[in-house]
């Protein structure tokens, strides 16, 4: 199994297969617009601009499960990213990442890289999962880990 077997929704609720990212190195992150870590949008965009031509893709998934920090619609979240951080990487529809309503993609990501806690639950916004060109989840970066610290791991996969 790989991430390519999942479909996700755009803010306009169009279903997209992750298979379109086959052969790319991908970062999947749960995000929020009103979080102390929100500036990571800019850091992720910097990575995207730097490594996109070499095969890096970044996929953002707004989530309102942590402190209600993504209260608006999926479209509002997407617009916020573009206007405030110049984000050009795809931002998808809002998802839940924990609990019974957790998106199947995030259930899979957590199974593959459970993290350091007692369970695999995502602790906060901006948990980042690094996926290799074969669609395998190879590393999990916790929310306070700056995207800049991911550069070496990204370069090794590119």
TrEMBL record:
This is Glutathione peroxidase. It comes from the Bacteria. It comes from Paenibacillus macquariensis. Residues 1-158 form the Thioredoxin domain. Keywords: Oxidoreductase, Peroxidase. GO terms for molecular function: peroxidase activity. SUPFAM superfamilies: Thioredoxin-like. Belongs to the glutathione peroxidase family.
